[in-house]
Task: structure prediction
Amino acid sequence: MLASGPSIVAREIDRSFWLVGLVTVALLLIVTGAMIFFALRYRRSRRRIAEQVHGHTVMEIIWIAVPTLIVLWMFVVACGPSSRRGPCRRAPLSSR
Result:
């Protein structure tokens, strides 16, 4: 965690960082666990021939929409603190 007062929005940025990081680690563990589970469950045996699957449009929409929504949520969480800061003021240029 950051110190108590490095900037006005430091606490919000720190919270956003940890929230996005925790979601990322949780998804990593879920996907890795599912891969290991299915690799062990469906390992090569009984000389089965794979079949093509057609007609699962709803499932295809879901596995495109869910990751898209997660990425959009992470974008909103990460951009929240910077949008509350207001416009940046440019310092005058000087040459020494």
